[in-house]
Amino acid sequence: MEVFDYEDIQLIPNKCIVSSRSECNTQIQFGPRTFRIPVVPANMQTVINEELAIWFAENDYFYIMHRFDEAARIPFVKMMHERGLFASISVGIKDYEYNFVRQLAEENIIPEYITIDVAHGHSEDVLDMVRFIKEMIPQTFLIAGNVGTPEGVRELENAGADATKVGVGPGRVCITKLKTGFGTGGWQLAAIRSCAKAARKPIIADGGIRHHGDIAKSIRFGASMVMIGSLLAAHEESPGRTRVIDGRTYKEYFGSASEYQKGEHKNVEGKIEMIAARGKLSDTLIEMEQDLQSSISYAGGRDLEAIRKVDYVVVRNSIFNGDR
Ligand SMILES: NC(=O)C1=CN([C@@H]2O[C@H](COP(=O)(O)OP(=O)(O)OC[C@H]3O[C@@H](n4cnc5c(N)ncnc54)[C@H](OP(=O)(O)O)[C@@H]3O)[C@@H](O)[C@H]2O)C=CC1
Ligand SMILES: Nc1nc2c(ncn2[C@@H]2O[C@H](COP(=O)(O)O)[C@@H](O)[C@H]2O)c(=O)[nH]1
Q1: Which string of DSSP letters, residue by residue, matches 238-290?
Q2: Angle, CA 122 vertex, CA 102 and CA 77 arms, to 5°
Q3: Atom number of ligand 2 nearest to Cα 268
Q4: CB distance 204 to ligand 1 below 6 Å
Q5: Cβ of 167 below 6 Å from ligand 2
Q6: Coil/strand/helix, residue 278
Q7: For residues 248 and 231, what is the distance between their CA atoms, to the nearest angstrom?
Q8: DSSP assignment letter at 290
Q9: What φ, ψ does residue 77 adopt, rounded to 5°?
């Protein structure tokens, strides 16, 4: 298999067919709904909270609420539905999660999207949860992950997952690759490609996005949606705590498998980073949309489909080109 990552790839421009980038449509249908851009904020406690989830849903962005405030999940789904908004939540695979799913079904509280959020998604326990959710609440659009192989994608799909999430270890605050020696860190884009070739359903590229152009590259190699943590953290509205260090303002961004999330140092596979505080999240999302419109114009089309067909070259560390 050819191995490469985001920084090693350049997409090759085609003749432009629009007069303005504003003609390019970045919308994506994902499950039962259509969203403005193929981007979803990571379901992490320093990236999303209830206020942001409401804002994302109101503004036609996809979101996935994290699973770390377990008791808040049912009131959250009800609150979103009372406001006429879609509900998208995460679950784990521990025994009590079966009771949670059973309660959703019995009380007819049906989130439009559920994501099974586990580090090593290619496992019998995750496959069991996929089958259980599909049996109890077949109407919900079920995302399962994370995996890093075509076999993982196919097994989750065959068990009933409607989409799979690909990425084991490429994240900014991930230390899985260092602590275990495993993962797709350093070749995440190649992993997206091999998983997408095997997939019959949509995949979400999760982790390792460092520049807006990486979104277009993910789409080129087969992703339908791109999950982003660090680039969407540390904004004015972000839930991470604010810290002032040497007179500069930062916001916390920590891994879901870090001791900051877990409250103990056990099976730690994540760390914390202080990210310099930036402006409004809505401005970053608009910029992502504009950059993606530009990507579509370079691809020679009017919508995301154009990006999927472009040629590319592998040039190691090409994007920096001596500029760093
Ligand atoms: N995308 C990525 O690369 C990674 C993401 N994460 C994120 O961190 C959070 C915590 O993840 P996770 O630890 O899976 O969730 P949990 O701590 O909720 O673990 C889920 C269950 O899976 C078991 N489990 C976890 N890892 C393994 C493994 N390698 N082999 C066998 N059983 C396992 C756990 O048992 P036990 O704890 O006893 O082993 C537990 O019963 C999630 O939000 C996840 O997305 C974490 C690491 C990598
Ligand atoms: N190995 C770990 N991966 C983690 C942890 N917490 C979250 N994640 C993954 O990272 C992405 C976000 O990546 P980014 O490069 O955009 O910052 C997130 O969606 C998870 O899949 C963790 O503690 N360990």
Answers
A1: --SPEEEETTEEEEEEE-TTSHHHHSS-SS--B-EEEEE--S-HHHHHHHHHH
A2: 30
A3: 23
A4: no
A5: yes
A6: coil
A7: 19
A8: H
A9: -60, -45
What is the fold, at CATH topology level, of the domain defined by 6-237+252-260+271-314? TIM Barrel (3.20.20)
Amino acid in position 305: E
Question: 10-residue block means of pLDDT along the chain (324 residues)?
Answer: 94 98 98 98 98 98 97 98 98 98 98 98 98 98 98 98 98 96 97 98 98 98 98 97 96 96 93 97 98 98 98 83 61
DSSP assignment letter at 113: E
Determine the distance separating the centroid of ligand 2 and the alpha carbon of 211, expressed in angstroms: 16
Pairing of strands 312-314, 163-166: unpaired
Q: Please give the single-letter amino acid code of residue 231.
A: L
Structure token pair of residue 107: 């009380």
Q: In this predicted complex, what is the ipTM?
A: 0.95
Tell how far the Cα of 174 is from the centroid of ligand 2, in angstroms.
Answer: 6
